[in-house]
Design goal:
Order of helices and strands: HEEEHHHEE
Strand content: 15-25%
Structural class: alpha+beta
Radius of gyration: 13 Å
Helix content: 40-55%
Number of helices: 4
Largest sheet: 3 strands, antiparallel
Strand order of the largest sheet: 1-2-3
């Protein structure tokens, strides 16, 4: 399988698919995952919060919590994190799924 087939976001169905399994994500988690995936480089928590929750007063720690929950759901499917966190750089989709 190609990497694109291992993980993709089906925007028409508004869902993420990992290793052929639908990830049970909330709307906020899907928005965050889509935003991180669209940026090939590392994405800072502040950028995520501004893009996804611009109209709400939410702290940057909320981004960390959402990423942690997304990774927990990914580990249930694949046994590995889907989003990598690099201190002082931000978040990105892992290279090896």
């Amino acid at each position: 399988m190609k990497k694109e087939e291992l993980f993709y976001i089906d925007e028409a169905e508004r869902r993420a698919v990992l290793l052929g399994y639908i990830m049970p994500l909330t709307k906020s988690e899907l928005k965050i995952l889509t935003f991180i995936k669209e940026n090939d480089k590392y994405t800072r928590a502040d950028d995520i919060m501004q893009a996804v929750f611009a109209d709400k007063e939410i702290t940057r720690e909320n981004a960390s919590v959402h990423v942690c929950v997304i990774n927990r759901k990914a580990r249930r499917i694949s046994g590995r994190n889907l989003i990598e966190c690099k201190r002082y750089k931000g978040y990105r989709i892992v290279d090896k799924i």
